[in-house]
Design brief:
This protein is α/β, with parallel strands linked by helices. The chain has 2 domains: 169 residues, TIM Barrel; 200 residues, Hypothetical protein af1432 (Orthogonal Bundle). The protein has 18 helices and 8 strands. Strands 1-2-3-4-5-6-7-8 form an 8-stranded mixed barrel, surrounded by 6 helices. The longest helix is centred in the middle third of the chain and has 21 residues.
């Protein structure tokens, strides 16, 4: 893969911070944005503010992110000098109510930013400060003040997401999956025809079938062929020349690398709206796993890490446990070990990705230490993965 990473993301970044991320989900289960959480690893951590702003600009070049700084020092710095691009900054209610921060918060609106109020203040906010906050983060079931929209954060699991929306949430920040897929009694799984085409293609590529037969299979769903070519020509995975056909792709990539593109297609091709948050997570897991493997010399292993992360939510997408699912989809042995046996060399990386998603500093430290990775190295990988994901969408 060629690297189109912005210069601001090409080295270890913000060593005193643990970065986490999660999707902002709307009522139609579409992805309304990405929330980036910044947790200081030490109380006295003083991140380089200029580096932080450059990293945010490179990761979200069009803005639109929800930035959630944990810790007053970090939040104060961002309020004093927010990103250049329009963003939404999460502000705890006690900070919003503090007169010392009133001027900086009120200035956000004029600069094109919005605030996301976390919790409710004890009394009314000044009008200029209140005008910045159109959304309020509260527990499910709590009522948002008049003129604001309810947002529920930290939600995990499809049932919890549904419950938050049923309780009146406008948006939910969190994940619709929580642990491996567990079928309920009487569950009958029917895989959509378009996904069956991709699964068949992966099997045929794995068996090394000739190009003509592969093309015939892909032609059964022209929309998939178009999406596959669009992915191959995206800036995130820049190839030296534009790919003009499936045959051309095989000539450029070879069968082994073509499998990663088909894997990406399998995890993003569902037309089920409820799958969109899962597809969001799967793509970022794959890209992040690959970034974490960037120092590994073996190209094949990096591709396998990508597929491991990408397929790590496939059980929820296809509603089948991995031990059954991977009987019909060929995957490398190291990927099977991680997803089915929960063993092997890729599992520690997958566990680190899960810790980043859960925004658990304890788990983050434990997984990072086990892999001997610094926070700065991990942060650079996270931001590069998020940047590449936006290029694909």
């Amino acid at each position: 893969m060629s690297d189109n990473t912005p210069a601001a993301l090409d080295h270890a970044i913000l060593p005193g911070i643990a970065l986490g991320y999660s999707p902002v989900i709307d009522r139609q289960r579409a992805i309304a944005g990405t929330r980036l959480t910044l947790v200081p690893l030490r109380p006295d951590a003083k991140p380089d503010h200029a580096e932080l702003l450059a990293a945010l600009s490179a990761t979200f070049p069009k803005g639109g992110a929800v930035i959630s700084p944990q810790g007053e020092a970090l939040l104060t710095a961002l309020l004093a000098q927010p990103p250049a691009e329009p963003s939404q900054i999460e502000v705890p209610a006690f900070i919003a109510a503090d007169p010392a921060h009133a001027e900086a918060i009120a200035a956000l609106k004029g600069a094109g930013h919005r605030g996301l109020l976390k919790g409710l203040p004890n009394g009314p906010l000044p009008a200029a400060v209140a005008a910045v906050f159109k959304q309020v983060v509260l527990e499910p079931g709590q009522a948002a003040p008049a003129g604001t929209e309810l947002v529920c954060a930290g939600i995990r699991g499809a049932d919890a997401v549904d419950a938050a929306f049923n309780a009146g949430a406008h948006n939910v920040i969190g994940w619709t999956v929580d642990g491996p897929y567990e079928p309920t009694s009487g569950t009958k799984t029917e895989i959509a025809a378009d996904l069956q085409v991709i699964m068949e293609l992966i099997s045929r590529v794995d068996e090394g079938e000739d190009v003509e037969r592969l093309e015939q299979t892909l032609k059964r769903d022209p929309s998939l062929a178009f999406k596959l070519l669009r992915y191959m020509n995206s800036a995130a995975f820049g190839l030296p020349v534009e790919v003009s056909s499936f045959r051309h792709a095989i000539m450029l990539l070879g069968y082994a690398r073509l499998k990663r593109w088909l894997a990406l297609l399998l995890t993003t091709a569902s037309k089920d709206h409820s799958m969109r948050p899962i597809m969001f997570g799967a793509v970022r897991r794959g890209l992040l796993m690959e970034e974490l493997a960037a120092g590994i010399q073996e190209r094949e292993q990096r591709d396998e890490m990508f597929i491991c992360g990408l397929f790590s939510l496939l059980d929820h997408m296809l509603k089948s446990p991995f031990d059954k699912l991977l009987q019909s989809i060929p995957v490398p042995e190291r990927v099977r070990q991680a997803l089915v046996d929960e063993t092997g060399p890729f599992l520690p990386y997958l566990e680190l990705v899960r810790a980043i998603e859960s925004e658990s500093v304890f788990d983050y430290r434990e997984r990072a230490d086990a892999l001997m990775l610094s926070a700065g190295e991990i942060n650079a990988c996270v931001l590069r993965a998020l940047n590449k994901a936006t290029q694909l969408e």
